[in-house]
Automatic annotation (TrEMBL):
Signal peptide residues on this chain, from the entry's feature table: 1-16
Key words of the record: Signal
InterPro entries documented for this protein: GxGYxYP_C, GxGYxYP_C_sf, GxGYxYP_N_1st, GxGYxYP_N_2nd, GxGYxYP_N_3rd
Limits of the GxGYxYP putative glycoside hydrolase second N-terminal domain: 105-155
Ranges of residues in domain GxGYxYP putative glycoside hydrolase C-terminal: 282-513
Pfam entry (one): GxGYxYP_N
Domain GxGYxYP putative glycoside hydrolase third N-terminal, first and last residues per copy: 180-256
Superkingdom of this protein's organism: Eukaryota
Species whose genome carries this gene: Cafeteria roenbergensis (Marine flagellate)
Protein name from the UniProt record: Uncharacterized protein
Length: 520
């Protein structure tokens, strides 16, 4: 035991810059058992979710079909990844059908009690079991499962004390933790089991359970889920050398994480190696949609929503899209589908869909709140993840601008698009260059309720520089996913093009800044 612990400690130390996201023993699957999710009760979703998580440790096996995005990923898996599906009609049939891939027992819980749900998920994670509400106990019994733990009166913390690192339990992951409101019985528990992660919920991020879990994490860890307050949750992760992958409404993340494309993945829109000469007296504008770090949005209605990827105007305008750099490790089929559908640039001034990593890189963190080593770990993890995803430009959302953080995040990247937390355009379009000469471009305008409109942006751009050697000749426009949309970007582009402004995708804006703006 001592040697194992020592090796783990040494390996853990070396691992810090590597991906925190686990892989199954075997990548990809040729067959999935598919159960309809829409008709399941909350306790059934909890049971099926934990079954997905535990079976996914070996290879993806169980998939839930639902009216959200799940249908898209099933279709992508069938069409592009060569997966065939076998429909399973009920939870009981699924439990029976998934043996012998799952040989564990069950943790009894009370799905009406948040404490008990979190305790049951954490115990299932440690014991390799599924979580079963008392109302489903006969279903579990008749499928031949045995009760291995009673979590009806437990909490996440009491389970950690009783089971973590003991002879009966595994050791909780120090690279992934799951923060999830236990009322969301539908979602994300699969990933907790897949990662052998602890699950808890504390909007304050400061109760004793938060402290125990946060203190047990190694630099370069990922918090999956969501908390009470964005700023508080992301600050808690950032100050402990971690980052957040918003995933609270994610279904099927564990099985999706078991499908892996060859890396680096290639987004279809590489810029030509040499740019045309500096445009004569032109202002350059690029749009960038916010919130692509949000895994649950990507998995649910991002791809179909008419405000976003599903917009009828997509493909008529040069559009930048933030995208989680973690996708190749947590849901590669989402990336293969989006990359396959992206509008490919056909020449100067043509429409395009170009993806940018972030915010803020490997996940959502405020790099300006990170100390030296933590910052280096986050920057390295972000660079590795972004490059694996085929993303050269990174969008950083800082709590406030820090030259040291911008410099670290720029290393090895083609460009940094920097947002301030409040408001995103707090840098007013200012441009700087990292010590390696990588452009760091602040947002200048926001298509965002209460901020700019297509008309106000067109009017302001008309007063700005058209000298391509000046940073004042470039405008990055934030497109707020929740109050603006592709239609607004297309309207703005139309007004700007009438003023002979060049509207390009964000990678091209970055390469113009790098090539043409005067700097020391
Ligand atoms: C998933 O659900 C949709 C809609 O209910 C259905 O059309 C589709 O056939 C289902 N796919 C599978 C593989 O069960
Ligand atoms: C389950 O939890 C709910 C909410 O805390 C509680 O009201 C109920 O009595 C519990 N059920 C059992 C069987 O303990
Ligand atoms: C849970 O705790 C309560 C109060 O201590 C007790 O009455 C009840 O029997 C316990 N239930 C279980 C399932 O252990
Ligand atoms: C779980 O156990 C391991 C090994 O003993 C320990 O390092 C870690 O801090 C524990 N996790 C928590 C959340 O207490
Ligand atoms: C998994 O499938 C993808 C898509 O078919 C393929 O590109 C990749 O090489 C496969 N990975 C492994 C390890 O088989
Ligand atoms: C786009 O945003 C505008 C302004 O908020 C709104 O009026 C319009 O309905 C939105 N369109 C779509 C397709 O979301």
């Amino acid at each position: 035991m001592r040697w194992v612990a020592l090796l783990a400690a040494v390996a853990g130390h070396c691992l810090a810059a590597e991906s925190p996201y686990p892989s199954p023993k075997a990548i990809n699957s040729s067959t999935l058992l598919v159960i309809g999710d829409d008709a399941l009760s909350g306790p059934e979703q909890l049971l099926v979710g934990t079954l997905q998580g535990i079976t996914s440790r070996a290879r993806p096996l169980v998939f839930r079909n639902s009216t959200g995005g799940a249908r898209l990923w099933l279709a992508e898996l069938q069409q592009t990844w060569g997966v065939s599906v076998e429909s399973v009609p009920s939870v009981e049939a699924l439990l029976k059908r998934s043996r012998p891939a799952f040989e564990g027992g069950y943790v009894l819980c009370n799905a009406s009690s948040g404490d008990s749900v979190l305790a049951a998920v954490t115990a299932s994670s440690l014991l390799g079991a599924v979580a079963v509400d008392a109302s489903l106990q006969t279903v579990a019994d008749s499928a031949g499962l045995e009760q291995v733990f009673d979590a009806r009166n437990q909490t996440s913390m009491s389970v950690i004390r009783l089971l973590n690192g003991t002879s009966s339990g595994a050791v909780l992951s120090s690279r992934v933790a799951v923060l999830q409101a236990p009322s969301k019985l539908c979602c994300l528990w699969d990933y907790a089991l897949f990662a052998t992660a602890g699950a808890w919920y504390d909007p304050s991020m400061s109760d004793p359970t938060s402290r125990a879990i946060l203190d047990s994490m190694q630099p370069g860890w990922a918090l999956l889920g969501w908390g009470g307050s964005e700023k508080q949750t992301v600050t808690a992760a950032s100050t402990r050398a971690g980052w957040v992958n918003a995933a609270d409404w994610a279904r099927n993340l564990a099985p999706l994480a078991g499908f892996r494309a060859a890396e680096p993945m290639a987004q279809p829109n590489a810029l030509p190696p040499s740019l045309p000469p500096a445009p004569a007296r032109k202002h350059t504008v690029a749009f960038l949609m916010t919130d692509g770090d949000n895994l649950q949005w990507l998995l649910n209605d991002f791809a179909t929503g008419p405000a976003w990827w599903g917009s009828p105007q997509r493909g008529t305008v040069p559009m930048g899209w933030t995208l989680s750099a973690a996708l190749p490790r947590v849901a590669a089929p989402v990336a293969t589908m989006l990359y396959g559908q992206a509008t490919v640039r056909s020449g100067p001034g043509s429409a395009c869909d170009v993806f940018v990593a972030g915010p803020s890189g490997a996940g959502y963190a405020y790099p300006d709140l990170m100390g030296g080593e933590a910052l280096a770990t986050f920057a390295a993890a972000s660079r590795t993840a972004a490059r694996a995803a085929g993303l050269g430009v990174v969008n950083v959302l800082g709590s406030t601008y820090s030259a040291a953080a911008a410099d670290a995040m720029a290393e090895g990247m083609d460009g940094v698009l920097w947002y301030e937390f409040d408001p995103y355009d707090g840098l007013h379009g200012s441009v700087s260059f990292s010590s390696q000469g990588v452009p760091v471009v602040g947002a200048r305008f926001m298509l965002w309720e209460g901020y700019d409109t297509p008309e106000s942006i067109a009017a302001k751009v008309a007063t700005l520089s058209t000298d391509p050697t000046s940073p004042e000749a470039y405008s990055l426009v934030v497109v707020h996913a929740w109050s603006s949309n592709v239609t607004q970007a297309a309207m703005t582009a139309k007004l700007l093009e009438a003023q002979s402004v060049d509207v390009v995708c964000p990678d091209e804006l970055v390469s113009r800044v790098r090539a043409f703006v005067r700097h020391a």
